[in-house]
Amino acid sequence: MTDVFDVLRKDHEEVKQMLSQLESGPSKARGATDSQLEQRKKLAEQLVIEESRHEAVEQMYFWPTVRERLSGGDTLADQAIAQEQEGKEVLDKLDKLDASDGEFEKLLTEFIKAGREHIQFEETQVWPTLRTQLSAQDAAELGSKLETAKKTAPTRPHPKTPPSPGALKATGPVAGMADKARDAMSDRGKE
After folding, report:
1. Which of 1, 17, 47, 181 could cross-link 140 (Cys pair, CB 3.0–4.6 Å)?
2. 163 and 84 Cβ atoms separated by less than 8 Å
3. Which one-letter DSSP state was computed for residue 187?
């Protein structure tokens, strides 16, 4: 069974790879073709999908565990959730723009910087201490909850949804179904 840190590390690695590709890839300002801009938009959509799922399940299960298990956990969770909420707002705007729009690049640059800072915060400020407070079984159970929840998690940011675990557990699967239906109708997230 995969533990919570393996699940989160895998997500972080996927996101960091997408951030690097978006950062170094062709853009309108660097003379990208229409086809390249279309691919850039698709990669940004995939980033939005993966980040939306990741942050939703963290807010449902991971941050409540941090609050419960760590001295100072409320402060760490509050800081992380504030970062995630800001990220949701940026991703929500980004998702509605074409890659040829100048605002697209501005928002993407903002998210790349913030996304890397957030990942660094989690990996260096939260994980080491939490690792000492979870048994192998607890870490595995939490990892399993995250993996299961990702299957029904929203694929869009939903910045107006309160980041409370109860609200997300109640509305997340419904929002996820609606998001997936919208995605299927628009081919969003398809290669």
Report:
1. 1
2. yes
3. T
